Amino acid sequence: MGVEALPRTIAWVAQDGADGVDGAVVRLVEQRELPARLVFWDVRCVEELEDAIASLAVRGAPALGLAGAFGVCLAGVELLSGAGDRRHGSESGFDAASHGAEAFLGALEPLARHLAAVRPTAVNLAWGVEQALGAVRAAVVQGVSARTALAHAIAQAQELAREDEVANRAIGAYGAALLPDGARVLTHCNAGSLACGFYGTALGVVYAAFEQGKLAHVYADETRPVGQGARLTMWELTQAGVPCTLQCDGMAASLMAAGKVDAVVVGADRIAANGDTANKIGTYPLAISAAYHGIPFYVAAPTSTVDASLPDGSGIPIEYRDAREVIDVEGFSPDVFNPSFDVTPAALIAGIVTERGVYEPGEILQALSL
């Protein structure tokens, strides 16, 4: 038991070899199985990974960034092995036996674009895809072989995983400094180790405060309709030995009114240039309640979640999901409104905690220039 005993959410696993290409799989925690059992899924092709992303077997913005990078590498392994020829040959025209690195890149790019579009709200997915593709492009310019170009992408993706943990621990340290001694923290959805490679963003703040002896208790919203708080956050906190209580989403304001919350800390799927923040549905009303009760509302996220191309939250694409997530009763099919995310205005956010420090929402672009 303890934070360090939590599983690594997503990793690149290959047979022994210098370049990491042979026998490669993306190993991820199958989060749909939690909390009943901890299951690892060895994903062997990019279509499988896309299914895992769409079905929430892997989710959380930073984890999706890693999935994007590893997914590009997995598609590259398929192309080089010939499996990609059979699976995508009519689209790419790539022949692993005779084509070089430039043709490899040309075949890889449309597969990468398709992967990046699987979940549109979380900007990290497209960011991770571009990080891996950029490594291939840079290698191609150097005149290397297709296999060597792929090895560069794998190395870049693995470096992103290492940087993810370093960033999350820094977010935790910066965020913990904002909390009072004996802090009682309310969180929403799951922005913990399961949403990253390891450690977490919002829960990274919790873990750091817990390790420092500053944390008294965590309250976790169940997070309707999929229940990430009930299934994932409570599982994580329990595994880590953090004192925690589950509540229904609609109970949060009453908890605040009772004086049992000192701070609200949530993650983010995309942050606009002005600090407007998209996060799991239900975050916006939580921020409103926190503002009414005079409770600071913090967003914890890596700088890779900031989308400088969007001036404000109105341009953030919102994913809508299946009505059956809300109600699945045989013979009854009411009209259902089921957005997966909402956008919290910057005015309701006390601070955005990044791996580079804590910023006022309107100053978040300064974090990108460091």
UniProtKB/TrEMBL annotation:
Catalytic site: D269
Entry EC number(s): 5.3.1.23
Domain of life: Bacteria
Pathway named in the protein's UniProt entry: Amino-acid biosynthesis; L-methionine biosynthesis via salvage pathway; L-methionine from S-methyl-5-thio-alpha-D-ribose 1-phosphate: step 1/6
Gene Ontology MF terms: S-methyl-5-thioribose-1-phosphate isomerase activity
GO biological process, one term: L-methionine salvage from methylthioadenosine
InterPro entries with a match to the protein in the record: IF-2B-related, IF-M1Pi, IF_2B-like_C, Initiation_fac_2B_a/b/d, M1Pi_N, NagB/RpiA_transferase-like
The keyword Kinase is annotated on this UniProt entry: no
Reactions mediated catalytically: 5-(methylsulfanyl)-alpha-D-ribose 1-phosphate = 5-(methylsulfanyl)-D-ribulose 1-phosphate
Function: Catalyzes the interconversion of methylthioribose-1-phosphate (MTR-1-P) into methylthioribulose-1-phosphate (MTRu-1-P).
Protein name, per record: Methylthioribose-1-phosphate isomerase
Organism: Candidatus Aveggerthella stercoripullorum
Organism phylogeny: Bacteria, Bacillati, Actinomycetota, Coriobacteriia, Eggerthellales
